[in-house]
Amino acid sequence: MNWATLLETRDLLTDCREQLDSATAELGAARERVAHLQNRIRRLRGGWREQHRIIGALSGHAERIADAERQTVEALSRVQGEREPGRVRSVKQALEFAKTHLVALSIPDSVVEAAVARLDKSGRRQGRGHAVMEALRALHAYALDGTRDGDFKHWCERGGSGGVCYSANRVAMSESVGVQRSERMTHARRFQVDPALDVSGRREMAAHVKLDQGETAPRLYFLDDTRGKTGKIHIGYIGPHLPTVRDPR
After folding, report:
1. Tens of pLDDT along 181-222?
2. What is each CA distance from 121 to 75, 91, 115, 128, in whole angstroms?
3. Torsion sign over Cα 69, 73, 75, 76
4. Element of type H or E holding 221
5. Edge-first strand listing for the sheet containing 208-210
6. Are 247 and 241 in contact (CB under 8 A)?
7. How far apart are CA 164 and CA 220, in angstroms?
8. Fewest C-beta in 10 Å: which of 37, 123, 148, 190?
9. CB neighbours (10 Å) of residue 52?
10. Can you tell me the mean pLDDT for 135-158?
11. Tens digit of each residue's pLDDT (9 = 90 or more) over 163-174
């Protein structure tokens, strides 16, 4: 082998060594990337397992919450049978019972005080107390009925629920056109409510219940927010018949 061939072989060997070093470096870098990806995969798998654990825990909480809600509704429904409306002897007694037990109703203290002052008259106290209790029980049963559709009058027309029913003929969900067009009369139907319903503390109410026979019988005005932010029936007025077009007073 001559000198030129030796030099050529040496150069070829040097090139091969350089290529081997380069390939070795690339292999090391590739192994580092593989190790990095494997670490990421392990972290992702750990994250997925934690996510599934949390989802499972949340599902369990949701089931427990649903059970608690069902138990609450059942407990509230049982409240309806604690006393018979016939045992109520006055409007004051009816409203004290409602404030304590009929938790789906919101009744401001001012409404209670005014109703007692206006309706708890000797000789008619028991009858009016019974009428008020009957109306409030029906509104409470309506508020708790999770299967209902439509408004309170429609619920009454369908026979109520939970053993509680009320005559739809005694319920009006709106006022006459004449009353609606009268600023004075609509203002007279603007009553105090829980600030949770309206920060102003007052709302206009048109839905009402006739508490006795006759056109001038006392009325109970309410606002249905059972599907709203408070989830309650708000009682705004219990007292003598308010001014109308026929009886403007």
Report:
1. 999 999 999 999 999 999 999 999 999 999 988 777 899 999
2. 34, 9, 11, 9
3. positive
4. strand 219-225
5. 105-106, 232-239, 219-225, 208-210, 171-172
6. yes
7. 18
8. 123
9. 10
10. 93
11. 899 999 999 999
